[in-house]
Amino acid sequence: MDLEALRHANFSKLNVAIGDWGTVVKNLTTLEKRARDDMKAKADRATWAGVNAAVSRGFISKTAGEFSDALTQATSIHNILKDTYDELVGYRDQLKQALDNGFEKDRLSVYGEKGGGFRVVAAVHPEPPGTQEKAEALRDKIQGLLGQATTSDSTAARALKAIAEQADYGFSGAKHADRDSAADALNKADAMAKLAQDAKKMSPEELAEFQRTMAKYKDDELFAAQFASKLGGKGTLQFWNDLAEIHAGARGEELKQLQSIQKDLSMTLATATLSDADGMQAWKKRVLDEATTAFRANPADALRPNGAMGYQVMSSLMHHGKYDAEFLNAYGKQLLKMDMAPAGSAGMGTNDLWKAGNITDLVFGDDDGRDPMIGYMKALSHNPEAALETFKDKEVFEHTLESIRYTDRDGAVAHALEAAVTGFGDGEKTTDHRPHSKAQVALMQEVMHAVAQPETGAKLVNKATGESFGDMAAAYMPEISRSIAGQGAESIFWSDSQAPRGLDKLDVTRFLYETARDPMGRAAIIVGESVYTASSLEAHIARPELFDGKTEDAVRALSVNAGIIEGIVGHSVADAKIAGDLDAEKEANTALKTKGDIVKSILSAGVGVGTVALVGTAPAVAATGAAVSGFFGGIAGMSVDRLIDAQQIDGALDQALYDSGGKLNDSLESVNVQTQQSAVDAIKEHGSKELTEDATRNMIRLALQEGWNASDNMLEDSHARPAA
């Protein structure tokens, strides 16, 4: 910015723009709140079916998200414009003051020159003593103000352009409180990209600075997109491969530092992929193009003749963060084509494909990074949309699930499947209510069918997969209950699923039976059933009009269902002859407490999450509370408290209410106590006029016994079980 431009600058138009953007922010704040609390909330509660359920709810959810992004972007623009205006006006006023002081006090005149320069000359002759020194001081002051104004103007322009480039359509989530923070983010990105151009030359101090910067800016869209774009797709892969080779065998503090860098770099790149900037489009394309390239820090290293493949390097940076779904789908299609190439039955050959050749440890943790499917599956576990899209291909699903028999990717695959069928990413915290789509239910049915296979299904359940399978069962407790109860139970077993009867009863039975063998899987089923039963009981007791029959009939049906599900679990444990195994007892109780603690924290926050089976909305009358938070009231939380805190019925030490001992009578009595108490709690809480405590307890006792007996018969018909 030259002297005359700043001296005569009129910022009135910029001030008007700031006012306009302020109005935009104010209006968008109102619209965003209405979109979130009114439009989206009503869509979440609606009992839609068909096109409305499949399309409208998703469209409304995305639209509400766009209002949020629009508010974020407008706020950032308003903040940057206001910050820049304040600075430029300040520099202009300081310049005028300097010019006035120079003339009045020191008799110095300042003239602008063609090309943007300026001269400081004496305004009187002869020149007073010290004029030269004063002229130089005024020149330096003016030059400093012009430099600051130029920086303010150029960095604001750069930041505004960067924000605008983040999204080709709609709005970006780039959020900055002022111009300086946006400018600092872009400058830091340039500096870190320059450092990462050659990992071999990074000093310990530079590596530490890289670590601190990634940790600070990993969620900053401007920083992430600028960093990745500057480094480039191939440069990113080369950097991480080289860093991994240089620090191979890291221990102690060095290992912790590399683990931190890997996590934060992964999250930075994930954030970057959300950008539609031209530089990021080029980055994504280059990563895909270099997927089969061999990367080596030192081409002369005889120990690494082949180097790490681009797939292996990129996937090792996908363990954390939510990557863009479109990028994941494009990357996954290429990777899966290669993973599925080896001949043989589904899933075979993939281990040898990736383990041969490269010996670089690309992951500073339990995994060595050589199987790129592990990192890719972990990326899918953080992006349910991409996970569902991937597994909708039946061939891909069958290959990926079967491949866990021959690889170490079982846990990663299970978490990706869990995200796909529940709609919630691994570790995600949200208040969203996300009804299951037809595609999700169809995939859940495929998972159940695979685990239900007589000869092979049980082998899919292990310590790495059991908890995820259990969480899936808990999330699908409404659909599972509908499947077990059969046609005509819709008004008792509520579900806002698009395919509430989309699960096969035989597969459901066998899936629950096999999953219950794993302690965490069993814990998830028990907690999920308890929460669903308790919240359903409370809703029917509190709002009898939700079912047009007698409330006691609804309570009885729910109790029979609980008896069947818990009976399947109890028989699974007994058949596995876990009874009397003290270590198994402790492991099961620990699992139940762990899962219970997680679910209790969710219930206490009023959040409906995929790891918990929660009551949806009734088919005719919305259940107040159930529609909003996913469960009716506090009875569900009390039921979980009993699971966590209560001792075994006979008072045995260190055993939870549900023991794993396979003593079927004790297990039946446990679910009997749990279900009866949930109903009695609801009767007391809501002052039921239809039900009495004693009669309800007896009714539940008989219904549970009926359900328990039915579970035994169902298993006899569906599963080859050991002789008594």
Can you characterise this structure?
By secondary structure, the protein is an all-alpha fold. The protein contains 28 helices and 4 strands. Strands 1-2 form a two-stranded antiparallel ribbon. Strands 3-4 form a two-stranded antiparallel ribbon. The model is unreliable at 605-631 and 646-662 (pLDDT under 50).
What are the main properties of this structure?
about 65% helix; about 725 residues; mainly alpha; two-stranded antiparallel ribbon; about 0% strand; 28 helices
Quick rundown:
It contains 28 helices and four strands. With 724 residues, the chain is an all-alpha fold.
Would you spell out the secondary-structure blueprint of this structure?
Blueprint: H1 3-7, H2 12-45, H3 50-106, E1 108-112, E2 118-122, H4 131-165, H5 179-195, H6 204-217, H7 221-231, H8 233-246, H9 252-273, H10 278-289, E3 294-295, E4 308-309, H11 310-315, H12 325-339, H13 350-355, H14 372-381, H15 384-391, H16 394-403, H17 410-422, H18 438-451, H19 466-475, H20 477-485, H21 505-515, H22 519-542, H23 551-575, H24 582-605, H25 626-629, H26 635-645, H27 664-686, H28 693-718
Antiparallel strand pairs: 1-2, 3-4
Shape: elongated
Class derived from helix and strand content: mainly alpha
Distance between the termini: 90 Å
Number of helices: 28
Which percent bin holds the helix content?
Answer: 55-70%
**Main sheet characteristics:** 2 strands, antiparallel
Write down how many β-strands occur, each being a DSSP E stretch of 2 or more residues.
Answer: 4
Poorly predicted residue ranges:
605-631, 646-662
Please give the radius of gyration in angstroms. Answer: 32 Å
In the sheet with the most strands, the strands line up as 1-2
Question: Oligomeric status of the shown chains?
Answer: single chain
Percent in strands: under 5%
What is the averaged pLDDT score? Answer: 82
